[in-house]
TrEMBL record, chains A, B, C, D:
InterPro entries: NAD(P)-bd_dom_sf, SDR_fam. It comes from the Eukaryota. Pfam families: adh_short. This is NAD(P)-binding protein. Coiled coil: none annotated.
């Protein structure tokens, strides 16, 4: 790997984040951000031991000083002039299916803190790296991708908390796409409309067969595809769902 | 005025909030919530001196304990069993047209605090009153209305902060409409797509004539219309703009 | 009734069309268009015998020459300079819930012919009357309203035929709203998201009680409300559904 | 090339259609449909002389009998059991930027005939081939892609004719995606939101540099990417625009 440009992935866990990190690690040194080091340690080891480079940084994405520290750590590790080819925001929080009057304020705020404020802080932290990636003539246009969900476009009953944060994040991504596209940064939003096939969802949709859940590696491929789109053909938004999904 | 049901208006100022309060005060005692008492004092006096009843309560809509105090004040004033016929959320914050990398975290958080968390706290505070309004056989279905903006459906460049809060609020309103419609509460969202004709906007669009701005009293009439829709014909969302507006 | 301005309703039958015609007939002489005279004869009689004025014209809304004849008949009846205060397009066709490969080309074309081409011909026929209504200082801004459906915004499986025509009609209404708003004509689109309570739907949703279906008179009231909005506060789109509807 | 499965492209001309045909011809024998043989003759020659296989069939996509003839020709050429791996609908018509009252009925109908009825006929013709592709275990899920435009999601003033057909086509694609996804056919819709860089648009946006227009080959790559998505990760809709495009 000879790229001087890095990829930054926020919200690394045993699902989409890990698949995305592995995919981009084949080309770029990757920075793995997660609150709990357990979520990136084995993944970083795996990438580092298989010829790639990964650096994990324990980060609370909704805390301005924690995100600032992560930026400093990245500069210390890769040099203060390092540019980024990709930044992927995969964090989420505040998921709760509950009657509205029973939703604790803490859960509602958690959704906003992670999805909306976290998306904001991650974007303010990563865009300067991405703009440097433009200056440094990244092979593919530097790309900022946000992971959305069904709840990003449909706010169902009992889902007020999660949906609110996810709509906010989608708004952020659209505004950024409009502002930074002309500056050469590709901003995208992916609506993941279904259950992702990860350890945590093992028991779900079992009776519907192995194709009823989204492949996390497939999502990573789709993110890579977005990353490789040329400056003449940017996609802001894709939806992704299993063929058998009802929608 | 013989109604025992009240109307609650959050975000009262010299614009839409005041027009809405006056309109609903013709039928219901109104509770006026604003952070700064200056924003409701003269309006309350005006309503009270012209045969209506208005009670102003200084409230920070994004602060759980302040909202809780407002609820207590309402119960003290109108009785602990009082029901509401209408609750209107008209607060907003975090408006800033600025390149994303120059948006202070405080402004971004302000938008989320007022529009998203404020909308949440107001809804959790007012829905129990509205559900009592259903029990008490309100003449018109008790109604919860949220004031949106162009930025509720379009996140333009340089508008990330305001749009993020407004999309979040729209999501909240949609989820609540789905949950509380079947319980008899009518939840609506109004997309105000243009400049409202209020003292603060006096200088704007002057060359386009008096019809280039939305009438605040007109918006109040539209909210009243939403309020009077029967349980068989609920509208979740309306857009409102001057005839001459480009969109 | 002293109005010199007329209202034109296309797609009159024993449901929304009749309710809308009755509502607007309280203020304006109404022209009733339907292919089959049976659909307007008793309604016209009812309106004429109760102090209003109604003229029925047998019209195939998807046939250019038939629509042209209707325009001539209107001018003959009301004078060649007559203006219109309202025009409501309520026709639809091509409803079929069927696997796509079993949809006959005739049914698919029927949907396009009535909803899309019919909407086009009706608009081209009625807009000159509405623009005259603007010149003649109609009390309320002359209004062109299109009746949409759930299928106007969601194209479900097995519903390709109906949805295709309805999306086309919605597009037409949006383009016209943008073009004719600045000329003083108010163009609106109503998404009727549920079953309307009319003779034909008597057996549907019976177990869910009388409030599970939309009131046709309620829809007429909503159309009237749209009609009375001032030029500063135009709504392009409303959705309408029973409170208990799942959406 | 060993694939027994074919790709069918409707609306071949010197732009997107040709790029898509070339791209898919690298893997599949391609059938080129266009009304005017001039639009596919040199392309077919080019593909055939460079190791691929292309068959051009003169077809009026809005004429049922012409489309039926095309189906017969395909079966005669490739065998009556031939399956398809991909079918791409790239035809459009009825583009006219004009005040609504000056739009000839013929132009409006042309848009509906090509985009809506043409999309219908092409889908009914190609889906049986695509379903056979599923049975014959196509390497990638058989894919039906529709080319949309800005006017597929926004009906601007003066654009009623083109927008109406394009919204109808989008509705069709959504309904088909929901019906045929569970049967293993991947149905997608691409919103081409900008000017495509083809001979006909040579003079447009010249002052904005070479990156202000969409690359037709880039669109073809994106269609290929959609085609290669696995059955667990289907995208219904993508938008595509130059980085510098205002939207």
């Amino acid at each position: 790997m000879t790229s001087k440009l890095i990829a930054i992935v926020a919200g690394v866990g045993p699902g989409t984040g890990a698949s995305v990190a592995r995919k981009f690690a084949a080309t770029y040194p990757v920075v793995l951000l997660a609150r709990n080091p357990e979520n990136f340690e084995s993944l970083a080891k795996e990438i580092n031991s298989s010829g790639g480079k990964a650096v994990g940084i324990s980060t609370d994405i909704s805390d301005p000083s924690s995100v600032k520290n992560a930026v400093e750590s990245i500069k210390k590790e890769f040099g203060s002039d390092v540019g980024a080819a990709a930044a992927i925001f995969n964090a989420s929080g505040g998921f709760l299916r509950k009657p509205f009057l029973e939703v604790p304020e803490e859960v509602f705020s958690k959704s906003l803190d992670v999805s909306a404020k976290g998306g904001f802080l991650f974007s303010q932290a990563s865009l300067p790296f991405l703009l440097k990636g433009v200056e440094q003539k990244s092979q593919y246009p530097p790309t900022l991708i946000f992971t959305g969900a069904t709840a990003s476009v449909k706010a169902n009953a009992l889902m007020s908390s999660f949906a609110t944060g996810k709509w906010a994040l989608r708004a952020l991504s659209q505004s950024l796409a409009r502002e930074f596209g002309p500056q050469g940064v590709h901003v995208s939003h992916a609506i993941i409309d279904g259950v992702i096939d990860i350890p945590r969802t093992k028991e779900r949709l079992k009776d519907q067969g192995p194709e009823a859940k989204l492949s996390a590696d497939g999502i990573a491929n789709d993110y890579w595809w977005l990353h490789t789109q040329p400056v003449t053909n940017f996609t802001w938004e894709i939806d992704l769902r299993p063929a058998v999904e009802k929608w």
